[in-house]
Automatic annotation (TrEMBL):
Residues 1-16 have a biased composition (Polar residues). Residues 1-23 are annotated as: Disordered. Its main location: membrane. It is found in: Membrane. This is Amino acid transporter AVT3B-like. It is a multi-pass membrane protein. Keywords: Amino-acid transport, Membrane, Transmembrane, Transmembrane helix, Transport. The keyword Flavoprotein does not apply. Residues 37-422 form the Amino acid transporter transmembrane domain. The gene is LOC103720110. GO terms for cellular component: vacuolar membrane.
């Protein structure tokens, strides 16, 4: 939520990479006057990462235990930050090596897909593109699930056993014509002002939820558990990775930073702040409602005027963020099938597919775990480690090689096991419902 301008800039941003401040600087950015200061870079990282995944953290902490959830969140934040720096360092090395740049045919690495092309050729770009399509479409499925579940909670309709006629599905059907129209817009410039609205709503909603959580906990503290056992740890990892998904924005953000030598420090500070905020949000949400914590924490808050306005604001925000988040999907798919030409019917087909998928998923947090465990882990951990290892190769010390291989193996193991675990959770929820 609220990070559309960052995500959408991946295709056009010129880039420079810098992690090691002792290395020589690259030529100055041609529009240096418009580069981001450290405070602005900090804010951009916050906007790019914080999204709807935070609303599923209290339920996740209920499943894993509050201490286990907090530890998983911190570990995922640290590993995500490290892998972001691997991407920046890899790009800088490639752009500095003019000979290699000529060989792979890439002189300006503007985004994650360009980096994949530079490192592994067309197969590398295809792998990154496929993961971006799946992750972005997954986020949009999550948006529709949140909106429809929230509306079904606030404005109840008669129940129906069919997944395509259930109250949640009826709200998705009602949104479909409007989404087809919004997603037909060739340029998203007209939607850009909604970024400010999205940021205000995000922060306002979180503040309201935190305040309600604290009041509820102090009035009636429920029984709590710190650790729920190893069987649900994979579930927690998936949601945490989803919540910190932002690996695709790190290259555009770094290239727009005015002081690139301090980009790593600013990025680390942003990630630390977000991790603390996420942890507080998840812990207080679980502390307030205990085992009654729902998959979307805002539905625990009742139907007071303020909480209803917050929930409706979040729904409106995500409704208009949907076409912006789908834009990277359109860029990739239209490049694959239409020679980079605009294709309305292909966009409509994708919107319809995402809408149908949202109707079939019963639980918001379960779906977050599935997306996080599958494509987000590959994007955030596996590909950065693999690219870094291939580009630097034998130049790395044994410790760095071991770290890259460790992340690679861990990421693949978590992706496979976490995906299986999340699918089992979703299928069991379908059977119960």
């Amino acid at each position: 939520m609220g990070f559309e301008s960052i995500k959408n800039s991946e295709a056009s941003s010129s880039t420079h990479g810098l992690v090691d401040p002792t290395s020589p600087l690259l030529p100055p950015h041609p529009s240096a006057a418009r580069l981001s200061s450290q405070p602005k870079t900090f804010a951009n990282v916050f906007i790019a990462i914080v999204g709807s995944g935070v609303l599923g953290l209290p339920y996740t902490f209920m499943r894993t235990g509050w201490a286990a959830g907090a530890l998983l969140l911190a570990a995922v934040a640290a590993l995500t930050f490290y892998c972001m720096l691997l991407l920046v360092r890899t790009r800088r090395r490639l752009e500095r090596d003019q000979d290699l740049s000529k060989i792979v045919g890439v002189s300006n690495i503007a985004c994650f897909g360009d980096l994949g092309l530079a490192v592994a050729g067309p197969a590398g770009r295809a792998a990154v593109d496929a993961m971006i399509v799946l992750s972005q479409a997954g986020f949009c499925v999550g948006y529709l699930i949140f909106i429809s579940n929230t509306l079904a909670y606030l404005f109840r309709l008669p129940s129906n056993p069919s997944p395509f006629l259930a109250p949640k599905a009826l709200y998705i059907w009602a949104m479909l014509p409007f989404q087809l129209g919004l997603n037909s817009i060739k340029t998203l410039t007209l939607l850009a002002p909604l970024s400010i609205f999205a940021d205000v709503v995000d922060l306002g909603a979180m503040a309201v939820v935190l305040g309600e959580d604290l009041v509820t906990f102090l009035a009636h503290p429920p029984p709590l558990r710190a650790f729920a056992g190893p069987s649900v740890l994979l579930y927690g990892v998936g949601v945490a990775v989803y919540a910190f998904e932002g690996i695709g924005m790190v290259l555009p953000l770094e290239s727009e930073a005015a002081d690139k030598a301090k980009f790593g420090r600013t990025l680390g500070l942003s990630m630390f702040f977000i991790a603390v905020m996420y942890g507080l949000f998840g812990v207080l949400g679980y502390f307030a409602f205990g085992d009654d914590t729902r998959d979307i924490i805002t539905t625990n808050l009742g139907t007071g005027v303020v909480t209803v306005l917050v929930q409706l604001g979040l729904c409106i925000n995500l409704f208009f963020t949907f076409p912006v988040m789908m834009n990277p999907v359109y860029e990739v798919v239209e490049r694959w099938f239409c020679g980079k030409r605009y294709c309305a019917w292909l966009r409509w087909l994708l919107v319809a597919a995402v809408s149908l998928a949202a109707m079939l998923v019963p639980n918001f947090a379960d779906f977050l775990s599935l997306v996080g465990s599958s494509v987000c882990i590959v994007l955030a951990f596996v590909l950065p480690a693999a690219f870094h290892l291939k580009v630097f190769g034998m130049e790395l010390g044994w410790g760095s090689v071991a770290a890259d291989l460790g992340i690679l193996v861990l990421g693949l193991a978590l992706a496979v096991s976490g995906t299986v675990s999340s699918l089992q959770e979703i299928l069991s929820s379908v059977e119960v419902s």
